[in-house]
Specification:
Layout (H helix, E strand, L loop, with lengths): L2 H22 L6 H29 L5 H28 L25 E2 L2 E2 H19 L9 H24 L3 H5 L7 H19 L15 H20 L7 H29 L4 H15 L8 H25 L8 H19 L15 H33 L6 H6 L1 H6 L7
Antiparallel strand pairs: 1-2
Helix pairs in contact: 2-3, 2-4, 2-8, 3-4, 3-5, 4-5, 4-7, 5-7, 5-13, 7-12, 7-13, 8-9, 8-10, 9-10, 9-11, 10-11, 10-12, 11-12, 12-13
């Protein structure tokens, strides 16, 4: 072998092993992505505290305003501790042989998460914090269904058990390399995990706990629309972290998610407003802000997959569908979902998840489908995901409610409900005038 041939042979060996060397390189942290995800995490937490807290508190009656603020605050605390202990592991652990269904207990107490631990291109500590903010807002959404009639102790136990047995497993199915993710379900930021999930739980909770005293005969208008609109505005701003942050990077996908979030929210607000204007003769402030929330929830699963045209059509569908769903639930079925969580978040989440399978198509300006997947096949996957999440959430929520009711009790006494939860449960008043 000549000297030239020997050098060529060495070069061949180096090239042969180069892919293995590259594959073995650990993931590298990206400072820009990390900075954006820290910001997005703060924005999503801002959605619950103070956004959702003020929105819900303004919508209830004066005698229950503090109870709702207290519930939102307490849920943020309880979910944080549960997330550290076990819920993050269930949602985003590797799961071993059972990975399709749950993440296992390997990451309990955030085991293995250190300063230098990287998830993709961001620290795993930041990824865990970002996902924690989603875990906080989801059971907080559910409390809108049973507002003004639930025991504080029952709410705490329900939120804890619901996080562990409903939210965390579904998060794993969809985002933790579980069976729905492997099946190809497209849910960018939580149409199923957050909104449909919370909506189904809310419907079950409203039915199991029963109506508030006097509903539907006694009017129960919001006590402070100024507070409610302030909270709704905070939700709108925070939602950019919710959707654009789900790209887990500061890139074009995050930028498009932010743009279509704005389009979907604005379109749904106007669609709801005009529906109400035509049907009842006047547009209301409550209507336009509720339409905004419906639009945000509906665009959420599609936000990383659709373009501006898809966002316009999804937003319009959200405003109309959620408006009629809310009126049907309240005025026809007389289901006392206190703050309309199911018709807004449940219907919106399901609608948005299904329409993602349509408007993700490249000829609508979307990102397209997985290779070899046609629109019809993707829509079927979306329908299967909606059905699976709705079934699991509905059934397990019912079981959890019954366990809580049998142990600490879920509903306050009738006389306590009449007096108001602020005084009865917390010995305080929202207003001392």
């Amino acid at each position: 072998m000549t000297s030239r041939e020997f050098k060529r042979f060495l070069l061949f060996l180096l090239l042969l092993h180069a892919p293995l060397a590259l594959a073995a390189e650990p993931p590298k942290l990206d400072a820009g992505n990390t900075a954006w995800m820290i910001t997005a995490s703060a924005l999503v937490l801002f959605m619950t505290l103070p956004g959702l807290a003020l929105f819900y508190a303004g919508l209830v009656r004066t005698k229950n305003v503090l109870s709702v603020l207290m519930q939102c605050f307490a849920i943020a605390c309880v979910v944080t501790l549960a997330w550290v202990v076990v819920a993050y592991s269930v949602a985003f652990g590797d799961g071993g042989a059972s990975n399709a269904w749950w993440g296992g207990l390997g990451k309990s107490f955030l085991s293995g998460i250190e300063v230098k631990t990287v998830k993709g291109s961001i620290p795993e500590s930041v990824f865990s914090m970002f996902q924690l903010t989603f875990a906080i807002i989801t059971p907080a959404l559910v409390l809108g269904a049973y507002a003004e009639r639930v025991k504080f102790s029952g709410m705490l136990l329900f939120s804890l058990l619901w996080l562990l047995f409903v939210y965390a497993p579904i998060a794993h199915w969809v985002w933790g390399d579980g069976w729905l993710q492997k099946m190809g379900l497209m849910d960018f930021a939580g149409g199923t995990v957050v909104h449909l999930n919370a909506g189904m739980a809310s419907l079950v909770a409203a039915l199991v706990l029963g109506r508030r005293r006097g509903f539907p005969e006694t009017p129960m208008p919001p006590h402070n629309m100024t507070m409610a609109v302030t909270g709704a505005c905070m939700l709108w701003v925070g939602w950019f972290g919710f959707n654009a942050g789900s790209a887990l990077a500061a890139d074009g996908s995050a930028g498009m998610a932010m743009l279509v979030t704005q389009i979907g929210a604005a379109t749904a607000s106007l669609a709801w407003m005009f529906c109400e204007w035509v049907r009842y003769g006047k547009p209301s402030v409550l209507g336009i802000v509720t339409g905004m929330v419906a639009g945000l929830g509906t665009i959420t699963p599609a936000s990383g997959f659709v373009g501006p045209l898809g966002a316009l059509l999804i937003g319009a569908a959200a405003g109309v569908a959620c408006f009629f769903a809310t009126n049907f639930m309240k005025r026809v079925m007389h289901v006392d979902d206190s703050l309309d969580v199911h018709p807004v978040h449940g219907v919106g989440g399901a609608l948005g998840t299904i329409l993602t399978g349509v408007f993700a198509a490249s000829y609508f300006g979307g990102a397209g489908y997985p290779e070899g997947t046609a629109m019809g096949a993707q829509v079927l996957v979306q329908l299967a995901g909606v059905a699976a999440v709705a079934l699991w959430s509905g059934v397990i929520t019912y079981v959890v409610l019954k366990i809580c009711d049998a142990t600490v009790g879920m509903r306050v006494a009738p006389e306590d409900e009449t007096e108001g939860l602020d005084t009865v449960l917390h010995n305080e008043k929202g207003y001392n005038l």
